[in-house]
Specification:
single chain, 489 residues, alpha/beta, seven-stranded mixed beta sheet, five-stranded mixed beta sheet, 19 strands, 45% helix
Length: 489
C-alpha cells in the first residue's frame, strides 16, 4: 500500500470514529492551528524566502494574515454555521419540523498551489475541519521548502489521523486521485483542473476547482490614471506576478497608453526602488522552468519598461509591454509572471467585446469614475469576481464568495462559503403520527376534490410567528376534520 493509500485509509477510519463531527473537536483543531501560526512564524517565513524570495513581512501580509482572519471567523461562527437552518413551509407541513441540517461530506482531498502555498492550501482545510470532515492535504511539490515545513508542522498541531499530509510530485498526486474521496478541492491551472475533474468523475466525486485565466483590466481614459496605475502595478507585481487574480493585461485607448506606461513605471520605482532586484519586497520566479516559459512569452512583443532578467536568480524585472497584438504569445495563456501587456482598444464597448471573445476570467478589473461604465462592464461580461478601481482586495473579504466561472473554475470558498461548500445540506422533515385526516387528500382513490384540497395545502407557503402557527394549527384541525368527514360521506 502506497503512502497516499495509507493516508486516505487512515483518514477514512478516523472519520468513521465520529470524532471530527464533534463541534468541540473542530474548534480545538482550529485553535491549535492558530497556535501554529503564532509559534512557528520563523520556520514558515524561512521556507517562503527559499521558495519565492518573500520577506518575513510579505509572508505575514499575504499568507498568514488572511488565515488568521478565517480561523477567527470559523471559531466564533461555527456553532451558528453548523446549527439546523429553518426553512419556509407550506400548509401541508405547518405542524412539522422542517429544516436543513449541515453535515460533513466525509474525506476531502485538498490539493494546494505553489504561489501562495499556505493561503490556498490551509484556507480550504479550515473549512473542511469546520464542516466536520477528515482531509488529506497535498501541498504543491513546486514550493518544496514550504511543503516540507507543512508536512513537519501540521501533525504537531492538528489530528494527524484525520488530517494527514502527503508530499511528493506528480506520481504521488496521481496515486491520490485514484482513491475515492467525498470531495476534491483543487487550486491551480485549468489544464490540471481538467485532469482532476476527469479523475473525480470515476468515483462521482464532487469538485471545487479554483483555477486562473487571463484576468482583464480596463482603464477608462477619464479616471485618475495615476492612482489606477499605482493599484494595477501593485496587483500585477505582487509575488512577482504569480497571483491567480493578478491583472493579466490592460485594455485602454491608444491615447493614454504612454501615460499608463509612465505611471506604472513610477509606481514600480516607488514600491521596489530603482533596482527591484535588490529590493527585499520583490520576489522571484518559482523555478527556472517557469522563468524560461515567461521569457518566451515576450518574444514577439515590444518592451516599454523593464525586461531585465537573470536566470541564475530566477529574476525578471517588473515589465510593461506596449502595443501588444491579440495574437501575440503573451496573450495565448495566463502569464503568471511580472509581464504587463497593454492592448489598445477604442473604448468600453470594444473592451467588452474583446473580453467576451475569450474564456471567462477569474477576476475582471475596471478603473473608472463613471458608475455607468462600471455597471456596463458588470452587466455585459462574466467573471468569477469583479472589482472596480482596485486589484486583488476582494480576495480578503470573507463575506464574498471567491471562485471562478466556466474556464476559471467552479465552486467557491472563504468564510461561511467554505463551510457550505464542504458540507452536505441534508433536508430534514420530522412529522408526528397525528392529524391523519389532512393526509387523506393524497391517498387513493384520487379525485378532483382531493386534488383541489392538495393544491390549496401544497401551493400556499407560509412564514408565521409562533402565535400565528398556533392559530393556524387550530384552524387546520377544524378544516381537516371537516374535510375528512366530507371525503367519507
Amino acid at each position: 500500500m502506497s503512502r497516499g493509500q495509507e493516508a486516505v485509509a487512515r483518514a477514512r477510519r478516523a472519520f468513521e470514529t465520529g470524532r471530527s463531527k464533534c463541534l468541540e473537536h473542530r474548534i480545538r483543531q482550529l485553535k491549535n492551528m492558530q497556535r501554529l501560526f503564532s509559534e512557528r512564524q520563523t520556520e514558515i517565513a524561512e521556507a517562503m524566502k527559499k521558495d519565492l524570495n518573500k520577506s518575513d513581512v510579505s509572508t505575514q501580509l499575504y499568507e498568514i494574515l488572511g488565515l488568521e482572519g478565517e480561523l477567527n471567523m470559523a471559531i466564533s461562527k461555527l456553532k451558528e454555521w453548523a446549527a439546523p437552518r429553518a426553512v419556509e413551509k407550506n400548509l401541508l407541513t405547518i405542524s412539522d419540523t422542517v429544516y436543513i441540517h449541515p453535515e460533513p461530506l466525509g474525506v476531502v482531498l485538498v490539493i494546494g498551489a505553489w504561489n501562495y502555498p499556505w493561503a490556498v492550501t490551509i484556507q480550504p482545510l479550515i473549512g473542511a475541519i469546520a464542516a466536520g470532515n477528515a482531509a488529506v492535504i497535498k501541498p504543491s511539490e513546486v514550493s518544496a521548502h514550504t511543503a516540507r515545513v507543512m508536512e513537519e508542522l501540521l501533525p504537531l498541531y492538528i489530528d494527524k489521523e484525520l488530517y494527514p499530509v502527503v508530499t511528493g510530485g506528480v506520481a504521488e498526486t496521481q496515486e491520490l486521485l485514484r482513491q475515492r474521496f467525498d470531495h476534491i478541492f483543487y487550486t491551480g491551472s485549468s489544464p490540471v483542473g481538467k485532469v482532476i475533474m476527469e479523475a473525480a468523475a470515476k468515483h462521482l466525486t464532487p469538485v471545487t476547482l479554483e483555477l486562473g485565466g487571463k484576468s482583464p483590466c480596463y482603464i477608462d481614459k477619464n479616471c485618475d490614471i495615476t492612482i489606477a496605475c499605482r493599484r494595477v502595478a501593485w496587483g500585477k507585481y505582487t509575488n512577482c506576478g504569480q497571483t491567480c487574480i493578478a491583472p493579466d493585461y490592460v485594455l485602454c485607448e491608444s491615447g493614454i497608453q504612454d501615460r499608463v506606461i509612465a505611471e506604472v513605471q513610477n509606481a514600480v520605482k516607488e514600491f521596489y526602488t530603482e533596482n527591484p532586484k535588490s529590493c527585499p519586497d520583490y520576489g522571484r520566479i518559482i523555478n527556472q522552468r517557469h522563468f524560461k516559459r515567461i521569457l518566451a512569452l515576450m518574444e514577439d512583443s515590444s518592451v516599454a519598461a523593464g525586461g531585465d532578467h537573470d536566470e541564475s536568480d530566477c529574476y525578471i524585472a517588473p515589465t510593461v509591454l506596449r502595443d501588444v497584438k491579440p495574437e501575440a504569445k503573451v496573450m495565448q495563456e495566463e502569464i503568471f509572471g511580472p509581464l504587463l501587456p497593454i492592448i489598445s482598444i477604442g473604448g468600453v464597448d470594444e473592451a467588452i467585446k474583446f473580453i467576451n471573445k475569450r474564456e471567462k476570467p477569474l477576476a475582471l478589473y475596471v478603473f473608472s469614475q463613471d458608475d455607468k461604465v462600471i455597471k456596463k462592464m458588470r452587466d455585459e461580461t462574466s467573471s468569477g469576481g469583479l472589482l472596480a478601481n482596485d486589484c486583488l482586495v476582494h480576495y480578503s473579504v470573507s463575506s464574498l464568495p471567491f471562485g471562478g466561472v466556466g474556464h476559471s473554475g467552479m465552486g467557491c470558498y472563504h468564510g461561511k462559503f467554505t463551510f457550505d461548500q464542504l458540507s452536505h445540506h441534508r433536508s430534514c422533515l420530522i412529522k408526528q403520527l397525528k392529524m391523519e385526516g389532512v393526509n387523506s387528500m393524497r391517498y387513493p382513490p384520487h379525485t378532483l376534490k382531493k386534488l383541489g384540497w392538495a393544491r390549496f395545502f401544497i401551493l400556499k407557503n407560509v412564514d408565521l410567528g409562533w402565535l400565528g402557527r398556533m392559530a393556524l394549527l387550530a384552524v387546520l384541525a377544524v378544516v381537516a376534520a371537516v374535510a375528512l368527514q366530507r371525503f367519507w360521506q
